[in-house]
Write a structure and sequence with these properties.
2 domains, about 50% helix
Length: about 130
């Protein structure tokens, strides 16, 4: 499941929970403690942690570490945008498998230029030709 699908499912659960649990509102006259906004801030930070810690370890472990190291913790929307950027970057630059890295090499064949494609086997560190 990618970050967008996970965020959507988590957001639906949060909305249901918000309908069940109401945040208390300060009713004293002339209140300057802003307890409601502090409680909402705690909920938002908790949701950000739930989202970060629920991400797939294989895909987002580095990003998770970077986000958790930030002080103060970014807003949930900013964290979601960071994960979407990570998805975008990952789709444009897929991770290479263990078989190797493609390379190109030009050779001469009877005066004609010919391009041969080689791949380096990461286990043996030896190149081999591909078709």
């Amino acid at each position: 499941m990618n970050a967008g699908e996970f965020f959507s499912k988590l957001n639906n659960l949060w909305n249901e929970l918000t309908n069940l649990i109401k945040v208390p509102i300060c009713t004293c006259s002339g209140c300057k403690c802003e307890v409601s906004s502090k409680i909402m801030g705690m909920y938002e930070e908790d949701r950000a942690h739930q989202f970060i810690l629920g991400l797939n370890d294989d895909l987002y472990s580095t990003l998770r570490s970077q986000i958790l190291a930030l002080d103060p913790l970014p807003l949930l929307d900013q964290i979601f945008n960071m994960t979407k950027q990570e998805d975008y970057d990952g789709s444009r630059h897929p991770k290479r498998n263990n078989r190797g890295f493609p390379s190109m090499r030009a050779t001469r064949n009877g005066g004609k230029s010919k391009v041969a494609r080689y791949v380096v086997d990461m286990d043996t560190k030896r190149p081999f030709a591909t078709k």
